């Protein structure tokens, strides 16, 4: 695996639900360290594509290569263990738990102690728990959220909840982070802060694939953008290139009035 090889490669990925093609021959690749935007109208197949990549849905045909290996049709837990983490359209924090407790749950894919060690509180398990707490504190520090460590997740402001959900995904040390409409429900100021936060995540060495409707955010953070319409790729390029593509204007951004 050469350092300049793409981190993620999709080749002719197709997903059928009965007679409906939710995805049809989708092909693109993401370079290591890039932020790729995935845009398109509602029902274009964006979340279905994230589900296929993360193993929550199985493609009908096509291949998915990640970090040089074939992950096509692998179960979600195996894909997560290889270095892919994600968030969802709806916030899925445990609202009654603290921020730290939520992050510890996100870190579980990196634990090694077995059930017996956990139940008996053996030394290995205690050492691992201390290390997990140190790791989550360091992660919160890097993302400038350490002051929220002991806060109850459900009592945080909406924008902070979104950021904590992203940090929880980062607790699994992913190589690739999948973000599904992270700015949903945010106002303009919160979205601008989110954009800076996403760029900070990339600066930590994480490659990102982001579904988003806010084109200002897409322009702020993305290196490349793929546009889906009716499950097919209709355009790919820089944010500026896709926004000026007539097919994108017609399908997604809307035709300007004469």
Layout of helices and strands, plus pairs?
Layout: E1 8-17, E2 20-30, E3 35-39, H1 46-54, E4 61-66, E5 69-70, H2 76-82, E6 84-86, H3 99-106, H4 115-120, H5 123-142, H6 158-170, E7 176-180, H7 188-203, E8 207-211, H8 215-221, E9 224-229, E10 232-237, H9 239-243, H10 246-253
Parallel strand pairs: 3-8, 3-9, 6-7, 7-8
Antiparallel strand pairs: 1-2, 1-4, 4-5, 9-10
Helix pairs in contact: 3-6
What does this structure look like?
The longest helix is centred in the middle third of the chain and has 20 residues, at 123-142. The strands form two sheets. A six-stranded mixed beta sheet has the order 6-7-8-3-9-10, with helices on both faces. It has a four-stranded antiparallel beta sheet with strand order 2-1-4-5, covered by helices on one side. The chain has a domain at 8-83 and 174-253: Rossmann fold. Helix content is 38%, strand content 23%. The chain is globular, with a radius of gyration of 19 Å. The chain has 258 residues and is an alpha/beta fold. α3 packs parallel to α6.
> Helical residue percent?
25-40%
Structural class: alpha/beta
Major beta-sheet overview: 6 strands, mixed
* Total DSSP helices: 10
Query: Could you give me the name of the CATH homologous superfamily of one domain?
Result: P-loop containing nucleotide triphosphate hydrolases
Gyration radius over CA: 19 Å
CATH class of one domain: Alpha Beta
């Amino acid at each position: 695996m050469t350092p300049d090889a793409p981190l993620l490669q999709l080749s002719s990925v197709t997903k059928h639900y009965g007679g409906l093609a939710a995805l049809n021959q989708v092909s693109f690749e993401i370079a290591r360290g890039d932020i790729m935007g995935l845009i398109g109208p509602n029902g274009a197949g964006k979340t279905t594509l994230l589900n296929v990549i993360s193993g929550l849905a199985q493609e009908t045909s096509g291949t998915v290569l990640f970090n040089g290996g074939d992950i096509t049709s692998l179960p979600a837990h195996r894909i997560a263990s290889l270095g892919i983490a994600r968030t969802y359209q709806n916030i899925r924090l445990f609202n009654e738990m603290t921020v730290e407790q939520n992050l510890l749950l996100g870190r579980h894919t990196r634990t090694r102690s077995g059930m017996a060690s956990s139940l008996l509180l053996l030394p290995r398990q205690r050492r691992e728990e201390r290390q997990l707490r140190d790791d989550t504190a360091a992660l919160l520090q890097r993302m400038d959220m350490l002051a929220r460590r002991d806060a109850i997740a459900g009592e945080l402001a909406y924008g902070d909840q979104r950021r904590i959900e992203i940090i929880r995904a980062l607790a699994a040390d992913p190589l690739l982070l999948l973000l599904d409409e992270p700015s949903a429900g945010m106002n303009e100021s919160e979205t601008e802060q989110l954009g800076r936060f996403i760029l900070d995540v990339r600066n930590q060495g994480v490659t990102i694939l982001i579904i988003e409707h806010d084109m200002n955010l897409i322009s702020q953070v993305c290196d490349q953008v793929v546009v889906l319409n009716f499950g097919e790729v209709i355009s790919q390029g820089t944010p500026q290139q896709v926004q000026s593509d007539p097919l994108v204007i017609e399908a997604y951004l809307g035709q300007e009035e004469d």
